[in-house]
Every structure is written in C-alpha cells, then in structure tokens.
C-alpha cells in the first residue's frame, strides 16, 4: 500500500537557520511506497530530536540526530534503551523536500524515502468532507485521496473537532478510507449492516466505560473482502484516541465491524466459511481487553439432510459445549 508520511521538521528551508533558532516545517511523502508514517522533529543548531509512528500502529518511536549542511542523519531507538539504534534515516535536504534511505540496524533492510514540504493547514488530499451527525461531541473534517462516482477510497487525513470549543482534538489517518456516498453525496456514519452498508466512521462506547470512541474504516481486509476497521479507544488521562490492537483485529478478521450491545455489555462478531458454516461470537470487556465468552457455530457443511448447531459458553475459564442436530430444512425455514 501507498504511504503517506507527514513530518514536522524545524526549519523553513532546513538549510538556513541561526544557531539560536528553533523552527518547524511539515513534510509528506513515502517510504518504499508502502508504510504510512507521521514524524515530529525539532531542530536547534545542528541537533535534531523528535519521534515518528507508523499510521497502522500509532506507537511513537523516538528519534535523534544531526544536520550537517544539507545532509540529515536520524537514528531511531527504543525509549527504554536510548543507546541502542534500531534504524536510521539518511537523506539530502532541499528547500522543498528530503530524499534518502531508511535502513534497519544490521543493514539487512533498506528502503528509499521521499518527503515533500507542506504547509500546516494544507489539505493533503483532493476530496474534502465534513461530518456533523456522527457524534454529539465531535465533528469530523477529513480529506480522502480518490472519489469516482459514489465511491471514495485511498489515503485519508481525519480531523476530530470538539463541537463545543471548536478546537482540534486529534488527527487520525487511514491508508484506505473506503466508503460509498449517499444520495446527498455525503458519507454515512454509524451504520453496521452484515453483508450491507458499513460506514467509514463508527462512534460508540466499545469498552463500556462511558466515553465516546471511534472506529475508522481501513480498506476491505476482513472476510470475503469485507470492510475492515482501525478501532480507537479514548484515553481519559491523555484525552486522546489510542489504537486498540485487539479490537482492530476483531474488526479485521471477521465479517466487518463487530456490533455493540450496551444492555448486556457485549461485543459480537460474525464469520463464515463458504455457504454452510457460520459462527457468532460474543465478548465481554474484562481486564482492559475483550474476552470471548460465548459462541454459536452453525455447521451444514455435509450438504446432507441434517446439520449441527454447536453452542459453547465460557464458565470459570473452561468451555462448556452443547451439540444439537437439526433437520437442515427445518432450521433454515423462514
């Protein structure tokens, strides 16, 4: 996949600055045309510090390095061990771009990167939308790479705006914000239909903590080419949305986005194999993660007169299983 790379670098031309000045600049571009990255850098004298993160993971990686003339060298390292270099960026800086090579620590992997200068409020992508009806707390302003007919997709930059203060809360990214526009040429929100419409943005309380959270469409990578999502939980301490790996996996490895049952405080996923095997799984939120506690498997793969329905329930850490046999024509009778 293509990657969008946005960087805050601290010099207007990066080649001319005084020894006392600390300045900043934004860049966008690609690493090997594959990995989307956001990077923030601070430059003072010839020293450069900052961090970057992969859009798919949202985990910051510290950086430091130096600028010599128009040559930039950055090393990435683990925050728990600043002496151990994980990888390096080496590039040439001009007034409009940075171009060079990313290498891992032992030199076994090497990828080109190209970053182009942007302005802070420049719209990164061509097609721009505003969503006001998804949440009582947030407005979404986003831009997406491509729209043809009623279909939009590709890299997207997503701004969350507080409806009360009108301040920018956070910027999120999707490598493939796939969606269909409605009859008014707008994206839908909060629709989850099995085998049907699934909106690019789903606002809900996924961990039942009372906070509004957000799932963002990221391509069609779930079962049978269905919709997949990056799922973000709200962190009250930092007041930010943080990508949750377990919920993102649930919204990628099944049949689209999971459903949320607030009355019973459960999340439900659906999956299938072929025409005749279906499974529904339910999860509770426990110890800061989803735990599968119930599943029903409908198995008619034998193509015979009878089928099995297997019900499994987690009790005291052990699965209790019940199997019932039905006449297939009776079970699926409308």
UniProtKB/TrEMBL annotation:
Keywords: Signal. It comes from Solitalea canadensis (strain ATCC 29591 / DSM 3403 / JCM 21819 / LMG 8368 / NBRC 15130 / NCIMB 12057 / USAM 9D) (Flexibacter canadensis). It comes from the Bacteria. NCBIfam families: XAC2610_fam. This is VCBS repeat-containing protein. Residues 1-18 form the signal peptide.
């Amino acid at each position: 996949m293509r990657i969008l790379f946005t960087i805050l670098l601290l010099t207007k031309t990066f080649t001319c600055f005084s020894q006392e000045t600390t300045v900043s600049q934004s860049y966008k571009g690609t690493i090997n045309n594959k990995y989307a990255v956001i990077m923030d850098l601070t430059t003072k004298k010839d020293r450069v510090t900052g961090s970057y993160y992969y859009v798919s993971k949202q985990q910051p990686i510290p950086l430091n390095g130096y600028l010599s003339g128009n040559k930039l060298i950055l090393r990435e390292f683990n925050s728990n061990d600043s002496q151990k270099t994980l990888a390096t960026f080496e590039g040439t800086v001009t007034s409009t771009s940075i171009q060079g090579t990313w290498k891992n620590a032992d030199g076994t992997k090497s990828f080109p990167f190209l970053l182009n200068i942007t302005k802070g409020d420049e719209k990164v992508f061509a097609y721009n939308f505003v969503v006001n009806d998804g949440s009582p707390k947030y407005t979404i302003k986003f831009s997406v790479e491509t729209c043809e007919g009623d279909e939009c997709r590709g890299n997207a930059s997503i701004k969350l705006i507080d409806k009360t203060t009108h301040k920018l809360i956070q910027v999120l990214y999707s490598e493939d914000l796939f969606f269909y526009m409605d009859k008014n040429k707008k994206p839908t929100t909060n629709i989850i239909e099995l085998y049907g419409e699934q909106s690019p943005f789903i606002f809900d309380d996924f961990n039942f903590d009372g906070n509004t959270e957000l799932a963002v469409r990221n391509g069609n990578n779930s079962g049978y080419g269905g919709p997949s999502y990056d799922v973000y939980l709200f962190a009250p301490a930092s007041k930010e949305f943080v990508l949750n790996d377990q919920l993102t996996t649930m919204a990628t490895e099944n049949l689209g986005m999971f459903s949320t049952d607030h009355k019973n405080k459960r999340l439900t996923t659906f999956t299938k194999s072929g025409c005749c095997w279906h499974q529904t799984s339910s999860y509770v939120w426990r110890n800061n993660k989803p735990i599968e506690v119930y599943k029903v498997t409908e198995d008619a793969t034998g193509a015979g007169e009878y089928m099995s329905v297997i019900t499994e329930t987690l009790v005291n850490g052990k699965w209790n299983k019940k199997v019932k046999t039905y006449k297939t024509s009776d079970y699926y009778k409308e």
